[in-house]
């Protein structure tokens, strides 16, 4: 297998693009894929301040590395969830911090246990809630809070094509119209002075992100979060993997065909407007008098 550009030995084959590339040309190709997403969806410019949500995994570290190399003003945010199994959270933090130090980039770290006296799994247990749902509310809150408090223009996450296509498949199977209305790779700010949300890795797959990290010598946490076992999204990923094996390019056609036609779902999401209230406790935009984060963590006015 030879690189289509220089005929040197290829290190990756990309059947969905009818392409094989050597290390050097694959690296350049990844930068181009991310640039394509940023430009096509008008995600941000070199003047914007970007907050990259980093988990210590391959996708978010690859994203941060690529944004820094492309000259974007990007800082990282790591949220330590306090997951003890396999030292998962502390190991992810260590790898994220090592990357930030090596890249000489600014990293914000939020430690849930230090801030709230309890880890995400322990809090979920005491509240009789699913760990992932409590985790989602908490991560969203801190991402938004840091972005707002520190004046970032955009929050960028490492979601790749496999993530987006799997979420789309799940939402289509059950016709979740509210989610189908907001599966685009970019959401503009809800109002002036707020921040946008962007997924610049949307043209890259998990395999490509893995190879990129290996070539760049980026150490990342290889284990998945222990709470992701049995997640339905893994089922959809497996189904899409099989489709992709027999029809290379199917995944990309599926997701970007949807993005092109996303207006079909506009107006079907009851909650697509700006939240009408302000949380009585923390003051963030909210659908109820007390936002889901403050009620989850049992916060009262004098505690924030
Ligand atoms: S939600 Fe659930 Fe993830 Fe949180 S507890 Fe782990 S698997 S990290 S994206
Ligand atoms: Zn080459
Ligand atoms: Zn609140």
UniProtKB/TrEMBL annotation:
Question: Does the keyword section mention Transferase?
Answer: yes
The protein's UniProt keywords, in alphabetical order, are: Transferase
Q: tRNA(Ile)-lysidine/2-thiocytidine synthase N-terminal domain: which residues? A: 49-170
Ion transport as a keyword of this entry, yes or no, is no
- Identify one Pfam family in the record: TtuA_LIM_N
Query: What region holds the 2-thiouridine synthetase TtuA-like N-terminal LIM domain?
Result: 2-26
Q: Which InterPro entries does this chain map to?
A: Rossmann-like_a/b/a_fold, TilS/TtcA_N, tRNA_thiolation_TtcA_Ctu1, TtuA-like_LIM_N
Q: Write down what this protein is called.
A: TIGR00269 family protein
Q: Which organism is it from?
A: Acetomicrobium flavidum
